[in-house]
Design goal:
524 residues; 5-stranded parallel sheet; Rossmann fold; Alpha-Beta Plaits; 21 helices; 12% strand
């Protein structure tokens, strides 16, 4: 739809025009009405209509001078149709001078006006198509030249072309700027809403002559921002003006990241690289709408990849269900990230390792990992969309949820596994058996296995094994003539003295005395 403004000092004329024509059917929308040339001028500057239908004789500012001002002073491409109750040749000649499309006499002939509207609609449509094509071509040139500039591969001709395109003045300086767009609340219309929001922001940027759009992607817009050195607070005023308009858009959070100041295009690479550092630094700040390169603080400590990326402690705490230990360990690690301003990629590696090792435990316990995997892999992949505090919160949430799930799996699996272990011990008690060896054989944490063992049998693993061996030794002492050292070896004790000490502990007598008592009882 193209915008049309109706101008006449007689209100009934503009009202009649509104109802006389089916504007929507003709591809137009009436964007306003004005009572004279002065009023029209204000509304033209505000609404930027594609077509103005104006009376020629009006108080304060007549139609001809209104058109003259728009063409010569404002340099607008707006089309004009003049309405007049007089067939004045001189006025028509002046109108032609300013490229007025048509001169229609009152009373207005509906068919004549509709015919003119159709012709003008086609003309505007073709002009806009050409403008779009030219703008698209210029944008491609601009992107290409800027990419060369930030790689130091530009030619003098390309710099001059960009300089001319930006219309730089002597006292203006530049900053490279990245504008990030996010939805405050996400819903089912997220993707479509993103497009609408971005187009609204682009429209605001295009209306400001101090922003020059370089590149746009899904949720980012890269621009060059111009600032006047001689005018105090020009820059802050311009940014705040933009943010004020942007913040009026529903459900949209706008963040601006700015590189350092430069005074010529051949230094654009510096401002661009500083801008990227500002974006990365934002990861360590709370959500902020505006961050300057000059605000970046130096790290309090040097980042150590090897020291920070050890995940064993937190994974062990997850497996053992030690929730307070999980929180404590993550707090230490993320404090190191914050103090050293660690690269985002390093944070990604750490969290990814925690997730992978935790998933491995779930798989070993025959758990379902798909839901965890999809949800948190997406989070890691899109980590740039969060700040460090949010990443810590999401990581803690993953660790605690995983720990709860692992505990459920362990409890569900424990009874069956303990029964298997009991059977294995009874069949192999004479061999060198340890809790560590059993935990490796049955894919369980040794500490957790020890806890579960005591829970089911009421005694710890070593006492259970010793009792089993001593019971077998008692049978052999009472039923065979084997020597004590032979019995010790046959039930799993390589050291006879140790066997004797264990025997005395569990029976309150020595092996030899036990044999004598057993023989007497057997003879009697």
């Amino acid at each position: 739809m193209f915008k049309v403004l109706l101008v006449d000092d007689e209100p009934f004329v503009t009202k009649a025009l509104k109802v006389l024509i089916d504007w929507e059917e003709q591809g137009y929308v009436v964007c306003g009405e004005a009572k004279d040339g002065k009023d029209a001028l204000c509304k033209i500057e505000k609404t930027k209509p594609d077509l103005v239908i104006t009376d020629i004789r009006m108080p304060r500012l007549d139609g001809i001078n209104l058109i003259k001002h728009c063409v010569e002073e404002l340099n607008l491409k707006t089309k004009f149709i003049i309405l007049s109750g007089y067939n004045e040749f001189k006025l028509a000649q002046q109108a032609i001078k300013y490229k007025v499309k048509d001169y229609i006499l009152k009373p207005i002939d509906e068919d004549e006006l509709i015919e003119k509207l159709k012709e003008i609609h086609e003309e505007i449509k073709k002009e806009k198509e050409v403008e779009t094509l030219i703008e698209s071509t210029n944008n491609l040139f601009t992107q290409s030249f800027v990419e060369k500039l930030i790689k130091n591969q530009q030619s003098i001709v390309e710099v001059e072309w960009l300089d001319n395109k930006l219309k730089l003045k002597q006292n203006e300086i530049l900053r490279y700027c990245i504008i990030k767009l996010e939805q405050r609340y996400k819903d089912e219309f997220g993707e479509e809403q993103n497009k609408i929001n971005k187009n609204q922001i682009l429209s605001i940027l295009k209306s400001k002559d101090y922003f020059y759009i370089i590149k746009e992607s899904k949720n980012k817009i890269q621009v060059i921002l111009k600032e006047n050195v001689k005018e105090d607070n020009t820059f802050n005023g311009r940014i705040n003006n933009f943010l004020q308009e942007a913040n009026e858009i529903d459900n949209l959070v706008v963040s601006i990241y700015l590189g350092g100041k430069i005074n010529s295009l051949d230094k654009l690479k510096d401002s661009y690289e500083q801008c990227l550092k500002t974006v990365e630094y934002s990861f360590y700040k709370e959500k902020d709408s505006l961050i300057y390169y000059e605000q970046i603080k130096k790290p309090e400590m040097t980042f150590s990849l090897e020291k920070t990326l050890s995940v064993k402690t937190v994974v062990k705490a997850i497996e053992m269900g030690e929730y307070s230990e999980i929180q404590k360990e993550l707090a230490i690690v993320f404090k190191q990230f914050q103090s050293s301003l660690a690269p985002v990629e390093a944070v990604k590696i750490y969290i990814n390792n925690v997730i992978i090792k935790t998933m491995k435990i779930m798989v070993e316990l025959s758990g379902e990992v798909d839901l965890f995997s999809k949800k948190y892999s997406y989070f890691v992949y899109n980590m740039e969309n969060f700040n460090l505090q949010e990443v810590q919160e999401k990581t803690l949430k993953f660790c605690l949820k995983s720990s709860c799930y692992i505990k459920e799996l362990q409890q569900g699996n424990s009874m069956g596994v303990i029964n298997e272990i009991e059977k294995y011990i009874k069949e192999n008690y004479m061999k060198d058996i340890s809790l560590k060896a059993l935990s490796e054989k049955y894919y369980m944490n040794s500490v957790y296995l020890g806890q579960q063992f005591k829970r089911y049998f009421g005694i710890n693993f070593n006492d259970y094994l010793n009792e089993l061996r001593i019971e077998e030794a008692k049978k052999q002492l009472s039923r065979t003539n084997k020597k004590i050292y032979e019995i010790a070896e046959s039930v799993g004790y390589k050291n006879t003295d140790y066997f004797v000490s264990r025997f005395q502990k569990f029976t309150n007598t020595s092996p030899s005395k036990y044999r004598k008592i057993a023989l007497k009882e057997h003879q009697s």
